[in-house]
Amino acid sequence: MLSIGPGTQVYLRPGATDLRLGYEGLSQLARRQLSADALGGRVFAFCNQDRTRLKLLLHDGSGWWLCSKRLDAGRFTWPASGPADPLSAAQLWALVAGLEVSGWKKHWRR
User: Fold this and answer.
1) What angle do CA 78, 83, 84 make, to 5 degrees?
2) What CATH code is carried by the domain that includes residue 64?
């Protein structure tokens, strides 16, 4: 079963990605473009040029998960460029649900 906990880091790859890539191709992109190891319980998210398809890649310790979603209508809000700052699991689910996550910042309580 796929489970993404609240402490899981989610990395978006900015811009368009060729989603014909499979496990190996996307994991190489995650390693090169995002400067992170995909075998650490992190989730990597990729979007196509039209922003109508999304793929999530993660390794659960025993194998790869590759999940995809295609929208019937509308588009995902996706950054065209910028750093690969990690999102929270809640922000990932908001993005997948169609909400805008750009500009979200962590607010620290003192």
Assistant:
1) 70
2) 3.30.505
